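$ fold --in a.seq
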Amino acid sequence: MAGRPGTVVVGAGILGCLVAREILATDSRASVTVIDRDLIGSGASRRSAGLHFPRGANPAVRALTTESQRYYADLAARRPDLPIHPIGMTVVARESTEAKVRRTYLPEANLRRVTRVPDGVALPKGTVAWAGDGCQYADVPTLTQALAAELRPTVEFLEGVTVTGVSSSVDGVRLSLSTGPPLIAERVVLAPGPWLAARAWRDLVAPLGARVKKIVALHIEQAPTEQDGAIVFQEEDAFLLPYRRRGHWLFSYTCSEWDVDPDTVEPGVNPAHLAEARELLRRYAPRLADRCVSGRVFCDAYAPDAVPLVRALTDDSRLVFAGAANGSGYRLAPAVAAETVRLLSTQAPTPTSRKDTK
């Protein structure tokens, strides 16, 4: 590494990599280092469903969704090789909630009532369906690695390096590292995903009030067709996603197990998860219920008010937290990254050398 880095991003998931990308988009000569305890995109990003739908439960999240949707559309247009795939969308909810549904979804969704629903989907009495636009899904770990590869000529990546301590002073932010010598940077962004309680920063992050919740997504052993789209069960905060690249469907539902630890959470599906998922599937897609036999389990960070957190952890804004996206890390990452860089700009760094400076 040449010289003292201007900004260090801790966490090389989709958000951390987009923060690095946004810093360079703002200042092409910026010096950026990204550190991760594991490999790029190997945390929550590796297990992400990667679904983007144009909605937000409140005005703040809708604004973030709008910004992120435009970002991904532009990225996919300029880099058609990236694994970002447009997909159709059907939203299912009680007819009596139509006004709320229309408030929740962006105008770009162009929701329209439909009388025919995808094959295998049932509409219980009192429920209706809308078709919508603006939905896409991505292979998030592959996308994250591709973005990191694009950044590597100008960004220093330190994989398999654990940050063991964080302290801030007028001289900069000091990071103690598992590899030995510390790293001192002008600014540091903590984008740790669900690792809120890591010893190095747990006391700094605790006042934010974010919590970690288990996320469960079940694999349904039925091959989707090219015509299949995502099916969103709005009130249950659940969805069916045709995972074409893997040859099966994915069913994500809301698991209510809180305050779990990403280092100790059991990675496998248990009978309770299967029972909860099948109960919902029998209501809306009964033919798929018995094919729901396996899946993935991890966790994510959630903000107290359901709006992702971008907060200075020190008075001088040298140390910033970004994350707690409430299970929508991929969907909202571009907007959260942009907000993070805007906050960093309130603390102008001193000139530093970048990676390729000799």
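$ fold --in b.seq
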Amino acid sequence: MKKGKLIALIVSVFIALLTMLGIYLHYKLVPYNENRVKIGATYMTMNNDFYKVLNNEIDKIVEENNDILYTRDPALDVNKQTQQVELFIKKGVNIIIINPVDANSKKLIKVLKKAKKTGIKIVVVDSQLSDNSPVDTTIVSDNYQAGVLCAKNLMQTQSSAKILLLEHQKAVSAVDRINGFLATIKGHDSYQVVDRKDCLGQTEVAMPQVESVINSGVDFDTVMALNDQVAIGALAAIENMKVTAPVKIYGVDGSPDMKNLLATTSSIQATVAQSPLTIGEKAIQAGYRLYQDKKVDKEIVIPVEFMTSDNVLNSDLTGWQ
């Protein structure tokens, strides 16, 4: 046998042995469980660290239980999300954890009803569906209160305001935040909404939207953004357009980026912190309880925390809460 062929044979045998050893160690260290719980998770977009952190918390607990998690990203496309739920049904998942792209989508609600009929437990996170009938539990932050807190701070720190609202009308959580804000300033004529833009919760959408408002000549001195990503997009637009007049910016999330801006600059007025770690933990715990036919509240609301430069240093600036 030629030397080259001999070496190739030795390498092939070595690789085969390593593969067999890997398989042996896997089943030795990770006991086989034919009753592993299968979970399907789909969020409106993974282009948001909030959902990545939330999903990582779920994944950590699923791994500890030696179960299976399928994570999908519909990228803000409700048709894709509907297809993902169909795929979860075909895979025979036991639990679906979903953050809906569109709360009012009839096709999404229909496929979730189909999943429910097959015995799959449905956990909705960080938002709601307009039709709650297929949902076993919904886990959200107190989004309405987040808007209230922003409005109260505005009224305490400014005697009047020209407000630009940055929204996401297909997400109930975002709508609740804006509604809380508007309900609080209602009846106070010195606080006026001068424009509204839908930004889908995305920085890259918010920036050109705010630039278009500036270019149109609409005068505003306050931005109420549905989340921190949009607030940061608004800040980028204001800086890019070289707006010199002071503008107060409010966000919701308590993201590391926003907390650092609060701690180091005067560009951001406040954010309302929610906890993807807590939502993720409660979501998978609720899913497991439902799978075991144990009682779970129909709605679980998690408190939020108002953050300004005065108290932000009490939190972890490098991570989520």
